[in-house]
């Protein structure tokens, strides 16, 4: 494990696509500063198994960074608590950041901007969500949204993920989940379901299985996870207990999707392994007709490992590359955990 103290809360971290072995590049975003920033980092492993962190470039940001995603190897996008979405790029040698486009005030209540809480990247569009219950569909050559939807319950939308080529899944603070088709003109969700029938469970984050796109895992504010099959939405396939604080992010290992990593408001970084539920270790060759272990998981056939003990403040964000996980925290540090057995 290695740590880099950056003197500001780290709200988001994302490895650049292709960062796997001795050297890598990642982005971080900050929060709770008068002026926040997106920072571009290079890391390299040293002989003594420690890491060098080099800050290559920084981009000032108005508001907290609320989401951060790479679109491809050179383009990335981030959202802010000021209701903005910014598209930016890194140059070919990963030495500088340049802003390319800025959609300001996408999310607002009356004339006041409210936080953009997240976005999903589709083939030709970005789809954003915010505290104004609004879903905005934008594309690079347009300055304003090409389409907007408003959630029927007028509740803050807390998370979003791509569910198909033209569909997104959103979750809100009341546990209402909606599937939206961005091509629709009637303004209505395609599918709607509740996380729990008998109680209100807030959705905080969503993960989609890398090879079985109908398999969705939702993180909850009470620290638990629910596993869903989008082909049958009457009940979750499983509910897995975590700690008692909000799940801030969850990510599958893209190469070994029986493995999931979560981080929480209480400072937990957990590695979940459901390989035992399916009887074999399944990698990227997993076929569509096979049943993923995530749809067979129960309280007895999965394991959880704590990856980063003794973190007191919240772990806000994580990213996986190879056997390595980075995470950003409220204790103003970026941590790297290496040689994880996925």
Automatic annotation (TrEMBL):
Repeat keyword on record:
yes
| Coiled-coil residues | none
Please name the InterPro entries in this protein's record.
WD40/YVTN_repeat-like_dom_sf, WD40_repeat_dom_sf, WD40_rpt
Record's subcellular location: Nucleus
The scientific name of the source species is Artemia franciscana (Brine shrimp)
This protein's GO cellular component annotations are: nuclear pore outer ring
Q: What's the protein here called?
A: Nucleoporin Nup43
Record's keyword annotation contains Ribonucleoprotein: no
Keywords in alphabetical order: Nucleus, Repeat, WD repeat
């Amino acid at each position: 494990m290695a740590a880099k103290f950056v003197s500001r809360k780290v709200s988001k971290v994302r490895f650049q696509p292709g960062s796997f072995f001795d050297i890598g590049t990642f982005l971080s975003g900050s929060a709770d500063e008068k002026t926040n920033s997106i920072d571009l980092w290079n890391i390299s492993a040293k002989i003594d198994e420690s890491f060098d962190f080099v800050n290559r470039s920084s981009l000032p940001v108005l508001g907290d960074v609320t989401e951060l995603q790479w679109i491809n190897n050179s383009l990335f996008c981030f959202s802010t608590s000021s209701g903005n979405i910014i598209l930016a790029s890194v140059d070919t040698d990963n030495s500088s950041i340049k802003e390319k486009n800025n959609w300001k005030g996408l999310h607002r209540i009356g004339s006041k901007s409210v936080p953009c809480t997240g976005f999903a990247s589709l083939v030709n569009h970005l789809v954003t969500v915010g505290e104004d219950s609004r879903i905005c569909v934008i594309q690079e050559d347009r300055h304003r949204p090409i389409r907007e939807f408003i959630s029927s319950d007028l509740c803050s939308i807390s998370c979003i993920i791509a569910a198909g080529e033209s569909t997104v899944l959103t979750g809100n603070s009341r546990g209402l989940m909606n599937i939206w088709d961005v091509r629709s003109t009637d303004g209505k969700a395609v599918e709607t379901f509740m996380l729990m029938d008998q109680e209100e469970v807030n959705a905080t984050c969503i993960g989609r299985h890398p090879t079985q796109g109908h398999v969705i895992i939702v993180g909850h504010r009470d620290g638990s996870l629910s596993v869903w099959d989008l082909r049958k939405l009457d009940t979750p396939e499983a509910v897995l207990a975590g700690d008692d604080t909000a799940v801030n992010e969850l990510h599958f290992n893209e190469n070994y999707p029986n493995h999931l990593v979560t981080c929480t408001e209480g400072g937990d970084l957990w590695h979940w392994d459901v390989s035992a539920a399916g009887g074999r270790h399944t990698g990227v060759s997993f076929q569509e007709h096979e049943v993923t272990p995530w749809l067979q998981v129960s309280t007895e056939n999965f394991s959880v490992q704590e990856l980063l003990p003794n973190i007191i403040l919240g772990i806000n964000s994580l990213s996986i590359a190879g056997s390595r996980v980075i995470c950003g925290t409220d204790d103003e540090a970026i941590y790297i955990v290496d040689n994880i057995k996925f």
